[in-house]
Design brief:
Oligomer: single chain
Number of helices: 10
Largest sheet: none
Structural class: mainly alpha
Helix content: 40-55%
Number of strands: 0
Length: 222
């Protein structure tokens, strides 16, 4: 599934980011009160959230300085590439992973990519992985940034609540990492029904096969 070209980065090559995001996604889903099977499904699928980066050059992913506009565009294509790679899997894990790959860089305020979805137009699995992914990126050392402490990472996640992230998912994640109390709220899962908003659905976009928080390269874009 992954290219072995020396200038192509496997999403699992540098560290265990994908597995940590998977574990955190499952815990956040549990905090949200989802049933055990759904929590496990979201966790397994989340491990593939960055599979599209297998086709992004390592020289870009590991670049220590700011990205050019062209390089940023290449990185952002990993959402569409990942969805395209996963489109042939008919089982629940692959289908959920496809939704996650495509939507985990959408933002609560509608300024994300690739579709500019907002609020609950974003499938729940994508909203959970969005906050889990950024939290883990903030906590980890990368070529372009130092690792942040739990306190500083949580402060940045909290600052993104209601703009970058679903506030309910933020509360759940902070509860999981011990940074705040958690109060259950009613949430709407849209993982099985794409919003009727006139925007291109995942199946159409991925089938084409084409193409806030700011820390150096913008962790939110990774």
């Amino acid at each position: 599934m992954y290219s072995t070209h020396p200038d192509v980065a496997s999403p699992f090559a540098a560290d265990d980011h994908a597995l940590r995001v998977a574990a955190l996604t499952e815990e956040v889903a549990r905090r949200l009160g989802l049933d055990a099977d759904t929590c496990a499904l979201f966790g397994r699928a989340a491990a593939l959230h960055d599979v599209g980066k297998a086709h992004v050059r390592a020289s870009i992913l590991d670049k220590p300085g700011p990205l050019t506009a062209g390089e940023r565009a290449e990185v952002e294509r990993h959402t569409l590439l990942g969805a395209s790679l996963l489109r042939r899997g008919a089982d629940a894990v692959h289908q959920t992973a496809r939704v996650i790959a495509l939507t985990h860089h959408e933002r609560w305020d509608g300024s994300g990519y690739p579709f500019g979805l907002r609020a609950q137009e974003i499938p729940l699995a994508g909203r959970i992985v969005a906050v889990a992914d950024v939290y883990d990126c903030l906590r980890a050392e990368r070529a372009y940034k130092a690792a942040l402490s739990e306190r500083d990472a949580c402060a940045l996640i909290r600052a993104g609540s209601g703009s970058q992230f679903d506030p309910v998912c933020v509360n759940a994640l902070l509860a999981v990492v011990g940074a705040s109390p958690y109060s259950p709220r009613c949430i709407t899962s849209s993982t099985s029904t794409w919003p009727r908003s006139g925007r291109t659905p995942p199946s159409r976009a991925a089938g084409a096969g084409s193409a806030g928080l700011r820390v150096c390269h913008s962790v939110a874009s990774w």
